[in-house]
Design brief:
By secondary structure, the protein is an alpha/beta fold. It has one domain: Aldolase class I (TIM Barrel, Alpha-Beta Barrel). Helix content is 48%, strand content 18%. The protein is built from twelve helices and ten strands. The strands form two sheets. An eight-stranded parallel beta barrel has the order 1-2-3-4-5-8-9-10, surrounded by nine helices. The protein has a two-stranded antiparallel ribbon with strand order 6-7. β6 and β7 form a beta hairpin. α2 packs parallel to α4, α3 crosses α4 and α8 runs parallel beside α9. The two termini are 20 Å apart.
Length: 250
């Protein structure tokens, strides 16, 4: 089963568009595992995927994340996404992609800024050979993102914002989705017009960063990436329930 099929199945089963961003931090590895699994068990029936950033990888190590987080997620039929934001040269990107995929991640986030040749070509090769997914970061959710992503560049047909160039690259390279910050619903709307129904849009920044779940979905997002609003809550299950938005019916 492909990554797209896995996340769609989980979204329908749990009637949720929420991707849990599990970005917990703790200097004690055993406590970090315990906290992470407590959150996962609490919300496993209210999410469609788990996104893991480098907090867990650096705090536990890749093999420990595989054993303590990814394998339980597989048991719960929840796909996992590695938020690596890959942005290096090809051989390094390829090595990292293979390592994350072989540890059990179903998809990986990469930056299209590095380009295709000897950049992301090796990542797509690794994903295709393993039937994994690639999500491309086309507009970040932090306030400073606008300084770069909204810059204009001339591609021969007149000025165009950088994020639109990156969005078109996602279509050209056949990515499985794009990442657009929930703090910029107008950018989500433009991105949706560009990709049409071909690509899902994953939107981080709901809650802690100020993004509104319903506004983001109305703008064209497919999935909501939500972390602190859930895992810092005294009742993650209740928080996830309050943020849950059902997927559109066929």
């Amino acid at each position: 089963m492909s990554f797209e099929e896995k996340i769609q199945a989980a979204a329908v089963r749990n009637q949720s568009r929420t991707v849990l961003a599990l970005d917990l931090e703790d200097s004690d590895p055993s406590r970090l595992v315990m906290k992470s699994m407590d959150v996962i068990r609490s919300v496993k029936d209210l999410i469609c995927a788990i996104k893991i950033n480098r907090q867990l990888i650096l705090g536990l190590g890749l093999r420990a994340v595989e054993d303590s987080i990814i394998k339980p997620a597989i048991d719960f039929s929840i796909p996992t996404i590695m938020d690596a934001k890959l942005n290096d040269v090809g051989h390094t990107n390829g090595f990292m992609a293979r390592s994350y995929f072989d540890a059990g991640f179903d998809a990986i986030i990469a930056s299209p800024v590095v380009g295709w040749k000897d950049g992301l070509d090796k990542v797509f090769e690794a994903a295709e050979s393993r039937k994994k997914g690639i999500l491309l970061l086309t507009y970040m959710s932090n306030p400073g993102a606008e300084a770069f992503y909204s810059l204009t560049t001339d591609q021969g047909t007149g000025p165009i914002p950088v994020f639109e160039v990156l969005t078109n690259r996602a279509l050209e390279w056949k990515a499985q989705g794009i990442i657009v910050g929930a703090t910029k619903p107008q950018i989500i709307s433009i991105s949706r017009r560009i990709v049409g129904p071909k690509l899902p849009i994953y939107s981080p920044g709901v809650g802690a960063q100020g993004g509104d779940a319903k506004t983001v979905i109305q703008a064209g997002a497919t999935y909501l990436i939500i972390g602190r609003a859930i895992y810092t809550s005294s009742d993650p299950n209740r928080a996830a329930m309050g943020l849950r938005i059902e997927p559109a019916s066929e």
